[in-house]
Amino acid sequence: MAVRRAWSAALVGTAVALLTTLSIPVARADIPFPDDDPFYAAPADLASHPNGAVLGSRSIALFGLPIPVSAWQVRYRTTDSRGHAAADVATVLVSPVPFAGPRPLLSYQIPEDSLGTRCAPSYALGGGRDSGVINTMIDVPFLTDTLSRGWAVVVSDYEGPNSRFFDGVNAGHGVLDGIRAARSFGPAGITPASPVGAYGYSGAAFATLWAAQLRPSYAPDVVFAGITAGGIPADIPALAQRVDGGPQAGLAMLILLTFARNEPETGLADLLNDRGRAALAENASACGSDLVPKYIGAHVDDFANVPNVLASPAFRAATGANELGAITPDSPLYLYHSITDDVIPVRGFSQLVDRYCAGGATLTAIHSPFPTHNGGAAGEFLGGMNYLSDRFAGIPPAPGCRVN
User: Fold this and answer.
1) Which domains are present in the chain?
2) Could you tell me if 241 and 203 are in contact, meaning their C-beta atoms sit under 8 angstroms apart?
3) Which of 193, 197, 157, 199 is CA-nearest to residue 177?
4) Which of 35, 121, 238, 363 could form a disulfide with 333 if both were Cys (CB 3.0 to 4.6 A apart)?
5) What DSSP assignment string belongs to 343-401?
């Protein structure tokens, strides 16, 4: 225990120093953006490999700093939502903290929330410096906690090489194949006996729960001991409507531009006016963290040629196919959401919980008193990790649905 406490203290100290060092990102010429980095390129024989196959790997210094964590980037094969072979990249982290027994593997999703790969977690974790790394930096304290528990962690770029935000099937496949790749990556030391869990908050909860929903059909070989997710975007139109015209209006713009680009068959792009088409072009590689300050107070209707575009049949068709809840996960779930979430309305969360429970889920749901979206993330994190810790220890979850 003394060794574990010493390593944990070292990781916490490193996290504090890291946040201080990276508080003002400065571009590094030696860390190219993923689109310019040959490591991310798909091999010519990509389609001949099975899902989850490791296509290449390289050792990295986590965040480009001398942090005492073993870290690698792993390129792997997955299948996108159109059924095409794709090459994703995951970052595999192995804690220096000893673990008694097979070391658990946590699939940790970070909210990419982006239209371009410069916002991918692997770029930030590999030492990239750019405004697009902000979402990954926000997760540093949470990642530190998981590593201090002695777990191995895989962080997948689940939006894929085309940065498909809010594409449920694409994200779910990316998460599941990232787990497969991490398990088969020898240097990480993950064994067949290692229990597997998953975690995600906000946009990352979307990817995590899509992976849980698709697991039985797409990756039955991946068995989750438990899954934790919070701040869940279970009603995408309600999210966009909540933030439209306010301080977080850039998220509504991100959602509109995402689906106009990703779902051309719905005709949503045809509803953009000249200003909307210009916004789509100029933000082609933007991150949500870029759009929020850029579009404070904006109204999406000012970028469309129809009124109330968020209620239009085209927008609803584009979002509808990507909503959570059509499939009930068969893995134990711990879900939470602030009742005063100022970004994602809690009603969608409650309705998703009801659907999962009606489908027979094993589920604990917390309607959290911690205020706001960010408050819910910080306040409920330890409860979510302790739930996973119990599952990793082989403690069975309470059966049925428990909704608080």
Assistant:
1) 2-234+326-403 (3.40.50.1820), 240-320 (1.10.260.130)
2) no
3) 157
4) 363
5) SS-HHHHHHHHHHHHHTT--EEEEEE-S-SHHHHHHHHHHHHHHHHHHHHTTPPPPSSE
Q: Give the span between the Cα atoms of 403 and 362, in whole angstroms.
A: 11
Strands 85-94, 152-156: pairing kind: antiparallel
For the record, the structure tokens of 398 come out as 């309470």
Residues 174, 88 contacting (CB under 8 angstroms): yes
The b/e string for 278-291 (b: 16+ C-beta within 10 A; e otherwise) is ebbeebebbbbbbb
Helix (H/G/I), strand (E/B), else coil: 155: strand
> What interhelical angle do 274-282 and 249-262 show, nearest 10?
90
Q: Which residue has the tokens 């091999």?
A: 43
Residue recorded with tokens 């889920």 = 361
Taking each helix axis from N to C end, the angle separating 236-243 and 249-262, rounded to the nearest 10 degrees, works out to: 140
Q: Tell me which DSSP letter residue 132 carries.
A: G
**What is the number of residues in the chain?**
404
251 CB-contact burial (10 Å; exposed 0-12 / middle 13-18 / buried 19+)? buried
Give just the sign of the alpha carbon dihedral 185, 4, 142, 196: positive
Instruction: Fill in the DSSP letter of residue 345.
Output: -
pTM for this predicted structure: 0.94
DSSP 252-319: HHHHHHHHHHH-GGGTGGGGB-HHHHHHHHHTTT-BHHHHHHHTTT--GGGGBSSSSGGGSHHHHHHH
Q: Report whether 72 contacts 184 (CB < 8 A).
A: no
Q: pLDDT per position in the chain (404 positions), as tens?
A: 544 555 445 554 554 455 544 444 454 557 999 999 999 999 999 999 999 999 999 999 999 999 999 999 999 999 999 999 999 999 999 999 999 999 999 999 999 999 999 999 999 999 998 988 999 999 999 999 999 999 999 999 999 999 999 999 999 999 999 999 999 999 999 999 999 999 999 999 999 999 999 999 999 999 999 999 999 999 999 999 999 999 999 999 999 999 999 999 999 999 999 999 999 999 999 999 999 999 999 999 999 999 999 999 999 999 999 999 999 999 999 999 999 999 999 999 999 999 999 999 999 999 999 999 999 999 999 999 999 999 999 999 999 999 99
State the burial class of residue 34 (Cβ atoms within 10 Å of its Cβ: 0-12, 13-18, 19+).
buried
